[in-house]
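Materials and Methods. Structural model of AAA+ ATPase lid domain-containing protein. The 153-residue sequence of AAA+ ATPase lid domain-containing protein from Colletotrichum nymphaeae SA-01 was retrieved and submitted for structure prediction as follows.
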Amino acid sequence: MSLYYPPLAEIQTARIWSSHIRKVKANGVQIDEQDILAFAQQIWTIQGRPERGPVWNGRQIRNAFQSAIALAGYHTETGEQIHLTRENFRRVGEVSDQFSRYIYKTKLSHTDADLNRAGGIRRDEFGRDPGTQPAASWGEKTERAIWRIGAGG
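The predicted structure was written out as tokens:
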């Protein structure tokens, strides 16, 4: 059975990032929280563009945290506290994008939605109004507030 999960909304994505940040801090890792949340918002905005494909799902965000922590740990001297930065996530995101482009080319430039529809497996657009896009931004003030959920949200 092939299940369809709709792409995460911006608020869902912000909450997942914030949840992982809380866990990382609780495990004694030093983290540039606001800078990483700003990067997460940037990733969500870029990946939400129609030509880019789906935004990272919860599993991919978790994997990004695991990889970024491993990368930060690799560059940490023995006995020092791991410091997780935007740069760690930028490098992980770059590798993730390269892999996504490879998979897309391997599938002859078809998305999973295209392949599932052509194979009669599922129609990801079923139940949505034709031509609809993810909700537009709610304005700069609200948008900033969403990504400030951080440790308190």
